[in-house]
Amino acid sequence: MRRFGTMIVLSMLLVGCSSSSPASAPSAPPPDVAASGDSPFDALPPGITVKDAYTPVLVQVNNPPTVPVAGTDGRFHVAYNLLLQNASPVPATIRKLDVVDATNTGKVVATFSNKQLVDPACKFGDCNRLRALPATPVTDTVLPPQQARVLFVDYSFGSPGKAPKYVMHHLYLDGAVSPVTTTPGPVDYTVTPYSISASGPVIIGPPLKGNNWVALNGCCEPGWPHRSSPVAMDGNLVGGQLFAIDWKKTTT
Fold first, then answer.
1. Boundaries of every domain in the chain
2. Torsion over CA: 94, 36, 12, 155 (sign)
């Protein structure tokens, strides 16, 4: 706890997708759901197909299956991190990422490109989503050979019913078009099914007692301290603060 003048600051890892208090928190999904999307070698859910292709940049989700979380803005938010690793000897320039409905890949859920990927002039908001590990800003979208980047992904729905059960990730880049390529060329592929329909959230009561509490620094856009703080732990890049918020209590 930190005291600043007439305010007390208390940091708590609670779910929230706006700068106000949240409505719910995701619980651990059952084993059959948890397996889906955790590994590229898992059996695909019915109705989902991943086409065989050479994929010079690996695309891996760094979070367990999730669920759209209600925010006080009236929308339902999904947030997670993607690990992009260039597994080729050719530099890869990331152009765009489309998050698509896994059972209807022509339906785009969210798109990240241009300044959303890298914008040195932007400090907070829908920008600078592409980072060096674990979360250092970069100056361009070039992914050197045998190096990795993390991409902050978040999007929202007007209601839970509008969210697909699974999404996939359509990556556009200039990079190796085959294992023997020595110069970059245009490449795109749709991979990495990910469940955003895990078991329902745990409903919690008010985390603090009394009045005059204000919730700040909530989910989900980059630049805010919790969203931009993945940590390398237990062999994974853990986004443990995705839904953290800071509670501040005024004393007057």
1. 2-250
2. positive
Q: Are strands 185-195 and 236-238 parallel, antiparallel or unpaired?
A: unpaired
Phi and psi torsions of 189, nearest 5°: -160, 155
- pLDDT (tens digit, 9 = 90+) per residue, 98-107? 999 999 999 9
Which helix (H) or strand (E) is 31 found in, with range? Answer: helix 31-35
How many Cβ atoms are within 10 Å of 6's Cβ, its own excluded?
A: 9
Q: How far apart are the first and last CA of the chain?
A: 18
How deeply is 31 buried, as exposed, middle or buried, from its count of CB atoms within 10 A (0-12, 13-18, 19+)?
exposed
Instruction: Label residues 129-159 b or e (16+ Cβ within 10 Å = b).
Output: bbbeebbebeeebbbeeeebbbbbbbbbbee
Closest CA to 191 of 176, 174, 175, 172: 172
pTM listed for this prediction: 0.76
Among 8-12, 157-161, 184-188, 227-231, the minimum mean pLDDT is found in 8-12
Dihedral of alpha carbons 51, 54, 55, 60, sign = positive
